[in-house]
């Protein structure tokens, strides 16, 4: 079905239903794509190299005697293969990414330009400190911005991702407790709506996890929290705004209860992009918080890296920050404290071989400097505005999980699908046919059939209206009994619906040439 200029379905084009099958297998500009093993051949190569002369092999009898089996392709064939694959992939540069809790925001090209400057792109971690003063300057300025925006005392830049930042914060808490003779404190309170990495990190650091129930409004149940306090409590790991897309109204009370019990307050900073510039977590009583640079400050997200999850620390925990970290000397030059013995504090150790991800630092600082404090505040406000706009427009078609306004993500449950024969998974698959990546499904676990949508501040009203129109249309189709539209979806994707359980349990990780009829007959 075609779409008109406001994103609503328009009348089908007459020839669409009778489109002929092409001889080439292509569909217009979308070319057929085979596996690279099927396209190339191990008998040929796209590069001709002269035989080496005068080189003596140093592998002795360990040298490979057989082919690796990798197919040979010419340069145009290799280039076209990967371009065609890219055309079948969804990306933030292609359309809206409504994933909740993941914050797929636009990566500004200015950031990429700065990260590619020779002084940053070519820097090597083993260069003498005197030759990388500019790079250390970026780290020092980034640290200043992170500390200022969060109202904290110190920051560890070296963690490579959000979960790694959690590990950093909890190890700092572990070290602080041990230094104070409080090694008996090994119980960590974690809300049942927390990200899965929170309890996993706590256990990895040697703590025991004690779950806190959620109240009916999606926030921490204070009464349950109070019953869990005791002399063995090390602290709490809480996300704010939380995973239900809601701000914890009792955040100061929670902090006071934890501190009064002798524990520390770790805040999962995954959703900092909803409050950056508006609220300083340090003012809320937070002792440690990781910051996903890709979520809040527009560095690339996913793809296996490079990632970065700096961890900010309060006055009480800053002395235990890991090495390495940047300091400013009396003469104004910068230095990198690499060893625990050279630190003025009590570092709990070292988390990574080197100082972190330079490309992420330069990208994040570029975003901060180009927006300024007022721009970062506006980005947070726009993210919250966009999410509430989506929630307000869809609440008559879908059931909102919790009453009232949300923060940066709108959360729906599956109550509105009852009796339709359509599940959350079916609805998400149908979104692919509409040209959208599905929203986050079945998370948080405290909401049945959860559909978590985060539009981010990057989206214009026009793009939100088009998304809302598609979601509304799908909702009406589900309620009208058009179940085939959902249970067989996606119909228009390069890959149709998979048996995901079988794919997870018995994945095919290696290509094998298909067996020919002649081989079958010979057997």
From TrEMBL:
Q: Pfam family example for this protein?
A: GcvP2_C
> What SUPFAM superfamilies does the record tag this protein with?
PLP-dependent transferases
The Aminotransferase class V domain sits at 180-302
Q: Which reaction does it catalyse?
A: N(6)-[(R)-lipoyl]-L-lysyl-[glycine-cleavage complex H protein] + glycine + H(+) = N(6)-[(R)-S(8)-aminomethyldihydrolipoyl]-L-lysyl-[glycine-cleavage complex H protein] + CO2
InterPro entries, per this entry? Aminotrans_V_dom, GDC-P_C, GDC_P, PyrdxlP-dep_Trfase, PyrdxlP-dep_Trfase_major, PyrdxlP-dep_Trfase_small
Superkingdom is Bacteria
Q: Which Enzyme Commission number(s) are listed?
A: 1.4.4.2
Q: Which UniProt keywords apply?
A: Oxidoreductase, Pyridoxal phosphate
The top EC class, named as a word, is: oxidoreductase
What is this protein's function? The glycine cleavage system catalyzes the degradation of glycine. The P protein binds the alpha-amino group of glycine through its pyridoxal phosphate cofactor; CO(2) is released and the remaining methylamine moiety is then transferred to the lipoamide cofactor of the H protein.
- Name the chain's protein: glycine dehydrogenase (aminomethyl-transferring)
UniProt source species: Candidatus Phycosocius spiralis
Q: What is the lineage of its organism?
A: Bacteria, Pseudomonadati, Pseudomonadota, Alphaproteobacteria, Caulobacterales
């Amino acid at each position: 079905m075609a779409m008109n200029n406001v994103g609503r379905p328009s009348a089908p084009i007459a020839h669409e239903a009778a489109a002929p099958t092409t001889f080439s297998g292509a569909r217009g500009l979308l070319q057929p794509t085979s596996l690279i093993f099927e396209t190339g051949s191990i008998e040929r190569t796209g590069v001709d190299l002269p035989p080496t002369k005068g080189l003596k092999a140093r592998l002795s009898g360990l040298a490979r005697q057989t082919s690796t089996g990798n197919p040979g392709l010419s340069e145009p064939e290799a280039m076209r293969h990967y371009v065609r694959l890219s055309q079948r992939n969804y990306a933030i540069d292609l359309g809206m990414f409504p994933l909740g809790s993941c914050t797929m925001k636009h990566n500004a090209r200015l950031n990429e330009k700065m990260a590619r400057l020779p002084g940053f792109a070519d820097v090597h971690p083993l260069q003498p400190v005197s030759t990388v003063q500019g790079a250390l300057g970026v780290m020092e300025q980034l640290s200043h911005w992170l500390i200022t925006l969060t109202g904290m005392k110190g920051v560890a830049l070296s963690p490579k991702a959000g979960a790694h930042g959690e590990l950093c914060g909890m190890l700092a808490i572990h070290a602080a407790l041990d230094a104070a003779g409080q090694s008996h404190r090994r119980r960590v309170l974690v809300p049942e709506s927390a990200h899965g990495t929170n309890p996993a990190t706590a256990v990895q650091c040697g703590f025991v996890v004690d779950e806190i129930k959620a109240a009916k409004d999606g926030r921490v149940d204070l009464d349950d929290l109070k019953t869990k306090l005791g002399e063995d409590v090390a602290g709490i790991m809480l996300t704010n705004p939380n995973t239900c897309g809601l701000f914890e109204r009792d955040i100061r009370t929670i902090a006071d209860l934890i501190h009064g019990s002798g524990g520390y307050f770790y805040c999962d900073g995954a959703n900092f992009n909803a409050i950056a510039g508006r609220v300083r977590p340090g003012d809320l009583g937070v002792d440690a918080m990781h910051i996903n640079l890709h979520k809040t400050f527009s560095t690339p997200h996913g793809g296996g890296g490079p990632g970065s999850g700096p961890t900010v620390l309060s006055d009480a925990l800053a002395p235990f920050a890991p090495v390495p970290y940047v300091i400013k000397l009396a003469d104004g030059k910068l230095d990198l404290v690499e060893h625990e013995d050279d630190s003025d504090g009590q570092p709990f150790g070292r988390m990574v071989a080197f100082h972190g991800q330079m490309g992420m630092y330069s990208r994040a600082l570029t975003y901060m400097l180009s927006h300024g404090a007022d721009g970062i505040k506006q980005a947070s406000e726009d993210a919250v505005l966009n999410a509430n706009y989506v929630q307000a427009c869809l609440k008559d078609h879908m059931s909102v999980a919790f009453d009232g306004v949300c923060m940066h993500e709108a959360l729906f449950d599956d109550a509105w699908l009852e009796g339709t024969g359509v599940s959350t998974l079916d609805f998400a698959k149908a979104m692919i046919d509409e040209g959208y990546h599905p929203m986050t499904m079945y998370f948080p676990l405290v909401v049945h059939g959860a559909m978590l949508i985060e539009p981010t501040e990057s989206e214009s009203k026009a793009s939100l209206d088009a998304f809302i129109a598609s979601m509304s249309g799908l909702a009406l189709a589900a309620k009208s009994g058009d179940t085939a539209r959902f249970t067989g979806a996606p119909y228009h994707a390069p890959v149709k619906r998979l048996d995901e359980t079988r794919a997870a349990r018995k994945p095919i990780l290696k290509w094998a040439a298909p067996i020919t009829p002649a081989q079958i007959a010979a057997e």
